[in-house]
Structure to design on (587 residues):
């Protein structure tokens, strides 16, 4: 289709043309060179004058010959005709493969699908960078789906618990989107691990061996930098215990520290007790071979875990994966690190920093692919970013973040400006021979990273029902989470106390337990999706027993989920964090 005519001064890189009809920025056009090659070009700017004249400014991409992208050595002639580029020349010149990892379509030509070479992507690493809400984790989900389709093992470091939803098919109602991109809803085989399953229901325990404990690393888990005397206590305790016991536990270390006369011991003991309570170390650690399984997506859910412990878990996980790959203990795999700026920052050294840098620089030799994801690229170590040959950049506005990606090869000043104007779900992809703008396809699996609408207010929240016994020894000011089993039966939700195993009823405006009178309590709020940081009351009623009780009560149970209801405990009151209601404790 003819769209215009070249005029004025021309060069080997750019030219201007008079458009016969409206054209858009970033559209692909083609023009013939003096040596009779059809050149692929991209419109980088469009100007419209009061008299209706439209002027387009285009950048020459080139032509492909013998598999090599070439740039003309002679400027194109003025008055050359400009045509809209068709699918064939775009695919050929941009070297867009017809198979591989299907991630979307070209924004300017939606009939052109974009595929990535899995070997290239995984062996040479990838970075996904974007501001919050621009479609970052959604895009990563698409990449994971495509890699999982090839049965390549995937391990996801997930600080917010977003990726466990990939086990479910996409329940999006927009049928047109699936048809447009040619995909169908599908769930994937997801393994779910957490260092603290109590705050991540459904997760299997992730733990490391006692023989992996190192006093230097334990010191890094302290909320604040440990003092010299605290570190001395740790080192001395470890030295004594290891000299007397082949197999030891945290209880042994705690007992040794308790014998000290130093006042510094209390902070050390508190930290060791916290680690013991989390069960992050065990005599039966999680084998790395269970985490890397062909066809499975292993999600390490760190939601509700402190930043210090998150960094430690990432350090241990990445180190174990890297060492296991070096000796061929596990298959080649793909490691995804969400919120990477928290684990390998530019301005400080985290316990996880060094090993991630090692994987970025050497992982490709051993078949360990790396994907780093961040909403703040300015805060990621630049050495790690520079090792990512493929960069998928969605909308960003922060000047420092834009500067952090400006060094990328092929990123012109015009494209750098374009990053600010990208629509949600549209990405600038760098790493091919020429940067391209892609509309990310719809996901097959359910997206778990949606932003909560704060204007959406829920009704029928649960008034206070927390029994007094479990909170008698909780310090004042603590946040407490009480466990409940939520049953779905024939489209309605019901609540059971997961400590006593009693269903809850409304009796007027009062909530009573199962032996009371009134109508059974229906719940329209799910607290299982909220981040949990605080004292968690243990669920005495397990999943199997809860299901058995529910079936006797209702007959049919569609699903059952463990959720936690939040409270604040003060000196003499219990405060419901959802309704704001208060109840005297009577201490």
């Amino acid at each position: 289709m003819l769209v215009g005519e070249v005029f004025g001064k021309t060069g080997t890189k750019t030219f201007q043309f008079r458009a016969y009809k409206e054209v858009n920025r970033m559209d692909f056009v083609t023009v013939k060179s003096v040596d009779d090659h059809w050149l692929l070009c991209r419109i980088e700017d469009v100007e419209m004058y009061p008299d209706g004249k439209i002027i387009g400014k285009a950048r020459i991409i080139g032509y492909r010959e013998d598999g090599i992208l070439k740039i003309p050595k002679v400027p194109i002639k003025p008055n050359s005709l400009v045509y809209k580029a068709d699918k064939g020349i775009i695919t050929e010149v941009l070297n867009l493969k017809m198979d591989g990892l299907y991630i979307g379509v070209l924004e300017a030509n939606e009939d052109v699908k974009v595929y990535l070479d899995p070997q290239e992507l995984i062996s040479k690493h990838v970075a996904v960078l974007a501001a919050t809400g621009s479609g970052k984790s959604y895009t990563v989900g698409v990449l994971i789906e495509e890699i999982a389709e090839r049965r390549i093992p995937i391990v996801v470091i997930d600080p917010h618990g977003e990726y466990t939803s990939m086990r479910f098919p996409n329940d999006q109602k927009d049928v047109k989107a699936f048809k447009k991109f040619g995909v169908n809803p599908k769930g994937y085989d997801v393994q779910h691990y957490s260092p603290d399953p109590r705050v991540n229901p459904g997760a299997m325990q992730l733990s490391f061996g006692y023989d992996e404990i190192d006093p230097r690393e334990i010191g890094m888990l302290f909320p604040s930098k440990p003092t010299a005397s605290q570190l001395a206590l740790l080192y001395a305790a470890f030295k004594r215990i290891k000299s007397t016991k082949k197999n030891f536990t945290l209880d042994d270390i705690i007992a040794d520290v308790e014998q000290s006369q130093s006042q510094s011991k209390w902070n050390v003991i508190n930290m060791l007790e916290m680690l013991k309570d989390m069960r992050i170390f065990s005599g039966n650690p999680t084998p790395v071979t269970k985490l890397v399984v062909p066809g499975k997506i292993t999600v390490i859910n760190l939601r509700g875990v402190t930043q210090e412990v998150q960094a430690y878990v990432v350090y241990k996980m990445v180190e174990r994966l890297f060492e296991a790959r070096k000796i061929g203990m596990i298959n080649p795999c793909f490691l995804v690190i969400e919120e990477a700026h928290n684990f390998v920052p530019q301005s400080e050294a985290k316990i996880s920093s060094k090993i991630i840098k090692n994987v970025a620089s050497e992982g490709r030799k051993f078949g360990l692919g790396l994907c780093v994801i961040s909403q703040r690229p300015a805060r990621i170590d630049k050495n790690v970013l520079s090792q990512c040959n493929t960069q998928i950049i969605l909308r960003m506005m922060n000047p420092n973040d834009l500067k952090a990606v400006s060094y990328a090869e092929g990123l012109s000043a015009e494209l750098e400006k374009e990053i600010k104007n990208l629509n949600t779900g549209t990405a600038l992809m760098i790493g091919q021979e020429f940067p391209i703008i892609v509309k990310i396809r719809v996901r097959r699996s359910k997206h778990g990273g949606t932003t909560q609408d704060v204007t959406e207010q829920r009704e029928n929240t649960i008034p206070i029902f927390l029994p007094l016994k479990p909170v008698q020894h909780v310090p004042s000011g603590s946040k407490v989470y009480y466990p409940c089993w939520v049953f779905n039966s024939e489209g309605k939700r019901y609540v059971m106390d997961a400590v006593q195993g009693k269903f809850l009823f409304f009796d007027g405006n009062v909530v009573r337990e199962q032996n009371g009178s009134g109508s059974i309590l229906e719940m329209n709020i799910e607290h299982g999706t909220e981040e949990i940081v605080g004292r968690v009351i243990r669920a005495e009623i397990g999943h199997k027993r809860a299901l058995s009780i529910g079936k006797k009560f209702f007959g049919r149970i569609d699903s059952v989920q463990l959720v936690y209801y939040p409270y604040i405990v003060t000196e003499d009151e219990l405060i419901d964090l959802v309704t704001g209601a208060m109840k005297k404790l009577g201490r």
User: Anything to note?
Assistant: Residues 8 and 132 are 43 Å apart (CA to CA). The two ends are 82 Å apart (CA to CA). The chain has 15 helices and 30 strands.
